[in-house]
Amino acid sequence: MKTSDFDYNLPEELIAQHPAEKRDTSRMLALGLKSGGIRHQHIRDFKDYLRAGDALVLNNTRVIPARTYGHKATGGKVECLFIEPVEGSEGEWLVMMKSSHRPKPGAVITLNEDLSLELLENRADGLNRVKAVGAHSVLETLDEIGEPPLPPYIHRDHLCEDDPERYQTVYAKEPGAVAAPTAGLHFTPELLQEILELGVKVVELTLHVGPGTFRPVKSDTVEEHHMDEERYIVTEENARTLNEVRAQGGRIIAVGSTSVRTLETIVQEDGTFPAGHGRSGIYIYPPYTFKSVDGILTNFHLPRSTLMMMMSAFTTRDILTAAYAEAVQEKYRFFSYGDCMYLHDETV
Q1: How many angstroms separate the CA atoms of 306 and 288, rounded?
Q2: Tell me, what's the pLDDT at 143?
Q3: Same domain, 59 and 97
Q4: Which uninterrupted H or E stretch holds 93?
Q5: What is the rounded distance in angstroms from the CA atom of residue 346 to the CA atom of residue 51?
Q6: Is residue 151 part of a domain?
Q7: Same structural domain for residues 298 and 183?
Q8: Does residue 155 lie within any of the structural domains?
Q9: Rounded Cα gap, residues 54 and 200, in angstroms
Q10: What residues pair up with 298 in beta bridges, in sequence order?
Q11: Can you tell me the distance from the alpha carbon of 105 to that of 100, in angstroms, rounded to the nearest whole number?
Q12: Are 148 and 167 in contact (CB under 8 A)?
């Protein structure tokens, strides 16, 4: 299957550079999975598609202020994007770095008076393994001097005052992501409360979104692409709720592709969900049989992206392409700070 099959024309002015004035004013294109029927609505209408006994699955990862700047001993500036801690190694992290010359192992990058990074390894995947040395931890230092790592298609000279709050879901709890699970940015506490009052079970899981979410598919064919792995956690309580909903005939509605990836990673052949933690490298593209989800709320995705492939697998490529063409015609706002789409089973 060709990567170009998932391309579409997007005028640059439709790429949202700022969030909507209020979270729950975002537009929502409701798309019937089988009919391709389209309704132009708003996120506040989303609850009308839910019913008592359903489970709404949210990714509660929290975006860390992962981007910061340091300098080499020579004075050269180094931009650092902290990706994740190295498992089993005290104080070690994987970091993406930008500088005029890539630092070599042994180099020391000073972030501030409290923390420096000793470069241990330049990895083949473009990441650098570093050892944090200083009075403060990495997360403490990032909370002090770091910035939220906005996506590369948001072209601004500087962060806005509301970016640290708006590039974060209202239910974010577990720090570790370098990109927001953006389908969740549309929810307010009030909307979630209304959904709970319908009798819907709100289930949280954690998948720490990595930089691979922005990594383009460079191969000519879909099958040649390799997905980056991301860390996930599903608690006993939430696995139990998912299993109860499924056993009682309720539907599972996933908010965002990261929730989908986690559910499809852990679901068993009999349709049950175990608790646990691990790393997901699942790559979903047509044809694919979903075992865990009945509906997906998602944002509009980049052309030729793995997320376009996932959503095409959930409906069909032709139906999704037609829906995107209409979204462009109707001037929906695209990508992280943009509007959303609900791919639904048409039973409500």
Answers
A1: 13
A2: 93
A3: no
A4: strand 92-98
A5: 13
A6: no
A7: yes
A8: no
A9: 5
A10: 341
A11: 16
A12: yes
Angle between helices 306-314 and 317-329 (to 10 degrees): 110
pLDDT digits (tens, 9 = 90+) for 295-340: 999 999 999 999 999 999 999 999 999 999 999 999 999 999 999 9
Token pair for 193: 């409360």
- pTM of this structure: 0.94
- Residue type present at position 159: L
Check whether residue 76 and residue 185 sit in a common domain. Answer: no
Residue pLDDT, tens place only, 263-307: 999 999 999 999 999 999 999 999 999 999 999 999 999 999 999
Domain at 71, CATH number = 2.40.10.240
Tokens of 23: 């979270």
Task: Give one DSSP letter per residue of 265-311, joined into a string.
Answer: HH--TTS----EEEEE-----SS---SS-SEEEEE---TT-HHHHHH
Q: In DSSP terms, which residues pair with 77 in a beta bridge? A: 71
Residue 323 phi/psi, 5-degree rounding, is -65, -40
What are the phi and psi torsion angles at 288 (to 5°)? Answer: -150, 135
Encoding tokens for residue 341? 């789409």
Residue 134 tokens read as 């200083």
Task: Count other C-beta atoms under 10 Å from residue 110's C-beta.
Answer: 16
Report which of 278, 292, 305 is spatially closest to residue 152, judged by C-alpha positions.
305
Nearest to residue 82, comparing CAs of 15, 146, 36? 146
Domain that holds residue 189: 3-63+163-344
Does some domain include residue 157? no
Place of tokens 């929290």: 62
The set of residues, in sequence order, having a beta carbon less than 8 Å from that of 130 and lying 6+ positions away, is 92, 93, 94, 95, 109, 117, 118, 119, 120
Q: Both tokens of residue 187?
A: 């929810």
259 three-class SS: helix
Do 185 and 328 lie in a common domain? Answer: yes
